């Protein structure tokens, strides 16, 4: 059997679809191949059965074959093999691979599977020591169940808990690029859960929301609180106004108005309440310490918290789309269930400390925020493994240290801006630009393989494109597998003269972005080539 299957029945209606020079392989029909494999995977010989399962996993990528095999009740046969529990190692791995490939065509509903099958697949995930390939296929099956069936979602949730998944992430194996990307994606999705609160304005008339502000006041000034029935209404209003001023709100009469700005909206109030409840001593110390200073030297806690929350959302890109090529994640955010809130608590204390070090006044508020942003960014660059490490890094980035770093960077920059350097740069720039041009042309001539992503999230198709040696024609075409090395021009069936190219459109401006909502998460990697006569849509991701 060939390594990769693509079945096509040759007849008079499609003979014109076959181009001259195409290499065809005569093989058995999809039905005959499916029938043979259906028999072979039931062989009593383990070696013969293994080879049959390998071929089945390979052939199942083709939808024509998949339809024939499914018509032979092949899915039921595979599930019975899994439920029996008699296959292990490579036999089980290729059985699950074939199952995943067949189900990926969307021919069979996920709701047809039994609880026994779900429990068996879940058992492979729950085992601490399991073959990597089996674990990957099992997770893929459970993911598809969760995504495609609400009923199966609840059944899978009963079998798999977060605690059972964590050990698989704690292995000694170094984090590779794929794992780093997945952790980055998880980080983005986790932070994007904050977007709703970040974009929600506070309703000044909502009593439940106003009670949160009352709670902040109660925790900070508990000894100064008076019963609601004591004194006149005017006296109580005066007392509230005084306390809200001490808390650092801009609107002393109705601080709820401060949270109508989005972003950060209600997320800022959530952070303040978390800080007050979980770091009560630090909260009270900051509020009372600043309320005892002169008005112009106090660091307003309320205003600072709102602006800091907005800044942290910008730094962590809350609400932004993920980048499909990014591997940048911060380990410390996976060490605490409320990592963003704890991150805020550390940073608000840093802000208060930096304010004192700068001897700032109310006019210096924006300057302080700029310094705090720099402190946070420099500490994050060091990729601390825990929030405690992050806090320790900040201790070494005092305002004085930031000034030293800025001075050092300024000196280095001035060296590069000196007249001799500028003259040398101007002299060699044309040569460097020509070198860059040649390198880019050479890379285009070598060509690149792109991975196709279909609406069913399949990623097994490839597409290759390269520039001709005379730089006049783009050769491109589909591939069945990722090539090892360059693909010859002769094997790429389609051509596009460079002279006919009008423009290259990238990202969200691509015409097919309007048609494929599922690809919006990956818009930064999309491109289309626009010719002078029509639009040639190349709906693939850049590698």
Question: Can you offer a commentary on this structure?
Answer:
- The protein is α+β, with helices and mostly antiparallel strands.
- It folds into 3 domains: 154 residues, Leucine-rich Repeat Variant (Alpha Horseshoe); 214 residues, no CATH class; 93 residues, PH-domain like.
- 53% of the residues lie in helices and 6% in strands.
- The protein contains 21 helices and 7 strands.
- Helix 14 crosses helix 16 and helix 17 crosses helix 18.
- The longest helix has 28 residues.
- It is globular and about 95 Å long.
- 24% of the residues are buried.
- One of its GO terms (cellular component) is guanyl-nucleotide exchange factor complex.
- InterPro entries: ARM-like, ARM-type_fold, ELMO_ARM, ELMO_dom, ELMO_domain-containing, PH-like_dom_sf, PH_domain.
- GO terms for molecular function: SH3 domain binding.
């Amino acid at each position: 059997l060939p390594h990769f299957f693509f079945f096509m029945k040759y007849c008079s209606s499609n003979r014109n679809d076959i181009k001259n020079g195409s290499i065809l392989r005569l093989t058995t029909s999809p039905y005959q191949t499916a029938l043979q494999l259906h028999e072979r995977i039931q062989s009593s010989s383990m070696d013969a059965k293994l080879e049959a399962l390998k071929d089945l996993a390979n052939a199942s990528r083709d939808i024509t074959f998949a339809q024939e095999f499914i018509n032979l009740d092949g899915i039921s046969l595979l599930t019975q093999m899994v439920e029996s529990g008699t296959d292990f190692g490579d036999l089980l791995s290729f059985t699950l691979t074939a199952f995943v490939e067949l189900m990926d065509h969307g021919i069979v509903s996920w709701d047809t599977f039994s609880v026994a099958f779900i429990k068996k697949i879940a058992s492979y995930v729950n085992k601490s020591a399991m073959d990597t390939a089996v674990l990957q296929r099992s997770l893929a099956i459970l993911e598809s169940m969760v995504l495609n069936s609400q009923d199966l979602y609840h059944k899978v949730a009963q079998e798999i808990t977060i605690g059972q998944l964590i050990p698989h992430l704690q292995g000694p194996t170094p984090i590779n690029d794929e794992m780093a990307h997945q952790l980055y994606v998880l980080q983005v999705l986790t932070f994007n859960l904050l977007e709703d609160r970040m974009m929600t304005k506070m309703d000044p008339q909502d009593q439940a929301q106003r009670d949160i502000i009352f709670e902040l006041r109660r925790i900070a000034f508990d000894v100064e609180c008076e019963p609601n029935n004591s004194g006149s209404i005017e006296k109580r209003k005066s007392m509230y106004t005084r306390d809200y001023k001490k808390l650092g709100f801009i609107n002393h009469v109705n601080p709820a108005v401060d949270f109508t700005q989005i972003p950060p909206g209600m997320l800022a109030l959530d952070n303040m309440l978390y800080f007050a409840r979980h770091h009560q001593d630090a909260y009270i110390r900051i509020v009372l310490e600043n309320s005892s200073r002169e008005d112009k030297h106090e660091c307003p806690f309320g205003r600072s918290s709102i602006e800091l929350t907005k800044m942290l959302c910008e730094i962590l890109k809350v609400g932004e789309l993920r980048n499909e090529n990014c591997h940048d994640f911060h380990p410390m955010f996976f060490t605490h269930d409320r990592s963003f809130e704890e991150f805020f608590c550390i940073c608000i204390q840093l802000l208060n400390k930096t304010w004192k070090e700068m001897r700032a006044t109310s006019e210096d508020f924006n300057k302080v925020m700029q310094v705090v942003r720099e402190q946070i960014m420099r500490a994050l660059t060091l990729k601390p493994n825990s929030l405690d490490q992050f806090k320790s890094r900040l201790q070494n980035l005092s305002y004085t240290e930031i000034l030293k770093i800025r001075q050092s960077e300024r000196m280095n920059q001035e060296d590069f801006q000196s007249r001799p350097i500028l003259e040398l740069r101007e002299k060699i720039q044309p040569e460097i630009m020509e070198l860059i041009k040649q390198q880019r042309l050479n890379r285009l001539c070598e060509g690149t393989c792109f991975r196709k992503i279909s609406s069913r999230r399949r990623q097994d198709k490839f597409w290759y494109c390269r520039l001709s040696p005379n730089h006049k024609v783009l050769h491109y075409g589909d591939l069945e597998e990722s090539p090892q090395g360059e693909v010859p021009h002769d094997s790429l069936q389609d051509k596009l003269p460079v002279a006919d190219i009008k423009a290259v459109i990238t990202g969200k401006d691509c015409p097919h972005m309007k048609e494929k909502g599922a690809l919006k998460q990956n818009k930064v990697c999309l491109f289309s080539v626009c010719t002078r006569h029509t639009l040639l849509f190349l709906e693939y991701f850049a590698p």
